[in-house]
Amino acid sequence: xxxxxxxxxxxxxxxxxxxxxxxxxxxxxxxxxxxxxxxxxxxxxxxxxxxxxxxxxxxxxxxxx
Length: 65
Description:
Helix content: under 10%
Number of strands: 5
Low-confidence stretches: none
Order of helices and strands: EEEEEH
Distance between the termini: 25 Å
Radius of gyration: 12 Å
Number of helices: 1
Structural class: mainly beta
Largest sheet: 3 strands, antiparallel
Mean pLDDT: 92
């Protein structure tokens, strides 16, 4: 859910989503790249692409890819 600062949190990592509507649930699509150690997190709201950010895989603290 997008907080009043237009950020979403995943495993204690906050990501800015400037175009997201406040207090709404958005969809995160994570595309990992094992070679570079980065993942691209894409933000979607009702089939509308809001933007993306690159994040270190270790910062996401998810299951190993």
